[in-house]
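Our consortium's second objective concerns turning raw sequence data into structural hypotheses that experimental partners can test. To show how far this objective has progressed, the report includes one record in full. It was chosen at random from the queue rather than selected for favorable results. The single chain below, 172 residues long, was entered without modification.
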Amino acid sequence: MPTLKEIEEYKAPRWENLPDIELYMDQVLVVLDKQLSIFKRDKDEKIITSAMINNYVKQKITLPPVNKKYTRHHLAYLYAVCALKSIMGLSDICMGIGSLLEGRHTAEVFDMFCEELDFALSKAFFDDDTPLPPADTKESRLLRAVTSACANVLYSRYLVETMTAKEQGDGE
């Protein structure tokens, strides 16, 4: 589990920060492992593996790579799937992403998701009282709901872990 300092310093990647070159599978795994580090329960946990990506392609959750290379679109989609899979089933994630993408570019939706995730983490972990932009559309309410749930799951794990560590320390 990440430390409070790591969570405080974490900033979800934005479209412009995703590599704009095509990547092979091993490169995709390195990039996503780093970007998804706060979702790990421990440093050795694999948030995403090549087998998972291959299954997501087979299940048509994400588009197949072109000539075994993955683009920013793949990275954005896989980031969102990995961030949300602890709170939603894959079919719900895909339907939600699909509805958000209607009439929008992947970059716009990805940046909206990451911005909401940053807000949600700040609220959950640090009781940040900064006013959020209004969630005045179905899409913005969906993003707010899923990112809040995601952040609250992480915060709950953090609390359980710190309480368990304290109890184990008190018992020694």
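The partners drew two points from this record. The helical segments are 4-9, 25-35, 50-58, 72-84, 90-101, 106-126, 138-170. The mean pLDDT is 91. Both points have been shared with the crystallography group to help prioritize constructs.
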